[in-house]
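Schema walk-through. Below, the input block comes first and the output block second. Nothing else is stored per chain. Lengths vary across the set, and this one has 299 residues.
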Amino acid sequence: MTSEHFYLGVDGGGTKCRARLRTADGLLLGEGLGGPANIRLGLDRAWSSILDAIQKALAQAGLDASAFARLHVGMGLAGIVTPADRVRTRATAPTFASLSTETDAHTACLGAFSGRDGAILIAGTGSAGYALINGQGHAVGGWGFEVSDEGSGASIGREAIRVALRAHDNLSPETGLTRQVRQRLGGSPAAIIAWVNDAGPADYGHLAPDVLAHAAQGDAVACAILAKAAKELEVYIRHLHALGAPHLCLMGGLSTPLTPWLSPWARSLLVEPEGDALEGALLMARRNTHLPIAKSALS
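--- output ---
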């Protein structure tokens, strides 16, 4: 394998980074796992996690860093928002045979539809949509918890707190969910407001399982929160379909529990992904040596 070239895909998120190594004919050689690789955490930290994952994947194949010059690499990284982000990420990279960097949504969409037209809608702690239509990427939403992320776990948690406080003020019904939310956050409105002062999206998202559990028991307030979240996701689904995506993949930790809450027309557009974000990154890496497979929404 001294002169053979390899293809490597990287999927870097806010909590972990994954790498997958394949031969030119697609044989899986190794996989590796590293730490957080969102470039907003700092490029030094992101590259440390990326290289850790890459070296673990290489080690499974009996290779080491001396193989870097034979790696065609595709990366989908959280935190890449602008073309300048791609440039500065590549500028700090080691020397590979070739390197493409994109948003993690772009590579996830590539993998889900094997490079064909389609769209993904991520419903996790945050939410975001992405479509590839006629080789062009289209990003929708995903602008952050403060101004976006409708239908997400963080949004569901925030709504649970809102209705819990309204129930305390006798402005809306008191249920098992509203009582539990107040208890979790200290009991009193003052304690809840103190919690809110230091809370981030993940903290709000940790309340989503409570909403799901109470909805399964028929709690009216919990059911209303999930119905609202589903309607918010349907706005994205309708728009992505109107852009030209024939089908969509609903992804993220809330994709399965929220699917039954979607309208029949929305569920009819959903399909299972053909591959994951790593396969999308590998597809991008293969095209490094040929023609670009698709233009990013950042282009």
